[in-house]
């Protein structure tokens, strides 16, 4: 199953891991709680699995405007 990382703020695809590249221990799968997995991971049968993360551009924006951390989404 392909794993796609996308930015939760702007929707940009950050990266993509093909099944042969997946090592769940290296991506930190084991340190996430079930609640975190449910919040961050979107899965539908026969579709790539998507993990919500933050891209470099949005992270820079958050660094410049720390008050945005209070918001789940700051890009409309």
Classification by helices and strands = alpha+beta
Low-confidence regions: none
Mean pLDDT: 87
Number of H/I helices? 2
> Main beta sheet, described?
4 strands, mixed
Spatial sequence of strands, sheet with the most strands = 2-1-4-3
Distance between the termini: 31 Å
The ordered string of helix (H) and strand (E) elements is EEHEEH
> How many runs of DSSP E, i.e. beta strands?
4
- Assess the beta-strand content as a share of residues: 15-25%
- Computed over alpha carbons, the radius of gyration is 14 Å
User: Which of globular, elongated, flat, extended, rod-shaped describes the shape?
Assistant: globular
- Give the helix level as a range of percent: 10-25%
List the helices and strands and how they pair.
Layout (H helix, E strand, L loop, with lengths): L2 E5 L5 E5 L16 H7 E2 L6 E5 L2 H9 L12
Parallel strand pairs: 1-4
Antiparallel strand pairs: 1-2, 3-4
Short description:
The chain has 76 residues and is of the alpha+beta class. Helices cover 21% and strands 22% of the residues.
């Amino acid at each position: 199953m392909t794993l796609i990382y996308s930015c939760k703020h702007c929707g940009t695809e950050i990266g993509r891991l093909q099944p042969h590249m997946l090592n769940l221990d290296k991506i930190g799968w084991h340190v996430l709680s079930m609640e975190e997995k449910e919040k961050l991971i979107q899965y539908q049968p026969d579709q790539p699995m998507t993990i919500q993360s933050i891209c470099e551009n949005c992270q820079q924006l958050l660094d410049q405007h720390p008050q945005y951390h209070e918001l789940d989404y700051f890009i409309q």
